[in-house]
Amino acid sequence: MNDRPSFVYVTYIEGTPQKIWHALTDAELTAAYWGHSNVSDWQVGSSWQHQRTDGSGIADVVGLVVESDPPRRLVTTWALPGEEPAGGPSKVTFGIEPYGAIVRLTVTHENLADEAERETAAGGWAAVLSNLKSLVETGSPLPEEPWRMPLG
Fold first, then answer.
1. What are phi and psi of 134, to 5 degrees?
2. Confidence (pLDDT) at 152
3. In angstroms, rounded to a whole number, what is the distance separating the alpha carbons of residues 72 and 75?
4. How far is residue 46's CA from residue 38's CA, in Å, rounded to a whole number?
5. Considering the domain boundaries, does residue 140 fall inside one?
6. Domain span at residue 108?
7. With b meaning 16 or more CB within 10 Å and e meaning fewer, what string describes 3-22?
8. pTM of the model
């Protein structure tokens, strides 16, 4: 059994599974609410990159697509470029469940290195998914980048 930390975040978004899937996998949309473009063809076994939007093409996070079941489930590995974490890369699962006019989006980030990385992930996911929710529901991300807000 893996005893490494994990983090689960659940949010409810007015929209369709297709809209949520598109927002998670379209490079232009991810740039709008995440500050990075998620770039891949989203096929199982393909690589993906979390690229800066400054035109540099620098990827701050990379991984592989482990599972791709549009518009229900997307699973990727998650690591820093060129890094081989001792316990292997972490894994992020996006579960998309429709319920009438809303969607429950569950993000599970597993195999985190330690509690400090879990806390960092928790803050990051809360900010990014709040911005995603705003974009899908209103057509615009939040007026300020939520991950820049000071803690406490």
1. -60, -45
2. 66
3. 10
4. 13
5. yes
6. 7-145
7. ebbebebeeebebbbebbbe
8. 0.94
**Total number of domains in the chain:** 1
List, edge to edge, every strand of the sheet that includes 102-110.
Answer: 7-14, 102-110, 90-99, 73-78, 59-69, 47-52, 36-39
pLDDT tens-digit readout, 94-108: 999 999 999 999 999
Estimate the crossing angle of helix 115-138 against helix 27-34, to 10 degrees.
Answer: 110
Query: If DSSP codes are grouped into helix, strand and coil, which group holds residue 60?
Result: strand
Amino acid at 79: A
Token readout for 128 is 């990014």
* Position 1 pLDDT exceeds 50: no
Rg, the chain, Cα only: 15
Report yes or no on 141 lying in a domain.
yes
Task: State the CATH number of the domain containing residue 89.
Answer: 3.30.530.20
Closest residue by Cα to residue 129 from 11, 8, 42: 11
